[in-house]
Amino acid sequence: MNAEIRERIEMINRGEVPEGYKKTKAGIIPEDWEVKRLGELSSRIIDGTHSTPKYTDSGVQFYSVENITNNDFENTKFISKEEHIQLSKRCPVEKGDVLMTRIGSIGDTKLIDWDVKASIYVSLALIKLNTNVLPEYVYMYTKGENFKREIISRSLLKAVPQKINLGDIANVKILVPNKWLEQQKIAQILSTWDKALELKEKLIDDKKKQKKGFMQKLLTKDVRLPGFDGEWEEVRLD
Questions:
Q1: SS3 for 210?
Q2: Which CATH number belongs to the domain containing residue 132 in this structure?
């Protein structure tokens, strides 16, 4: 980080407005950025079916909170094609939409960046973004602390389970660069970091599994260390 950037950050932290920036209700931001409500950036924000569907062994995928929180869209429930068609008349899930958990676990999001054929439950909000904002940018913004903090503050804290209404989701503020290219660059950088972190977490999990397997072999005599070939004895701990 060069001295100019460091000085700018320190000024903002002191509440001072650097050249090229402006003060807004959401804080100090670049002059060519805007503070928008999520509802202003969306054509629709709706939830899934309020009735429990009839599940089937196969058919069309049916997403709920667990699929978002676990980032798992392979192991889903299924409904019939006929029921999916009926549900899609009100709530069609399409590529480019953002899903958000709104009951139980709230504020977790997923960008639908694949060709999808699925329906959703009431516990999920479906955010259909306008064409003047990049879906990847909004998705990355929803993973930040500012978004999470406002989602929590607008939720029904005394509700059991915890929930947030669609109107409150629409009123959450999003900081948006006016230039499409800047939105794209920010989304690309953050996405690259996300993928690197996911890879690191996977490597750590793999190492833990390898260690667990090796410990099991060492502690059950399946594998002996070099230079040790005698018999084991069982002893009491008391």
A1: helix
A2: 3.90.220.20
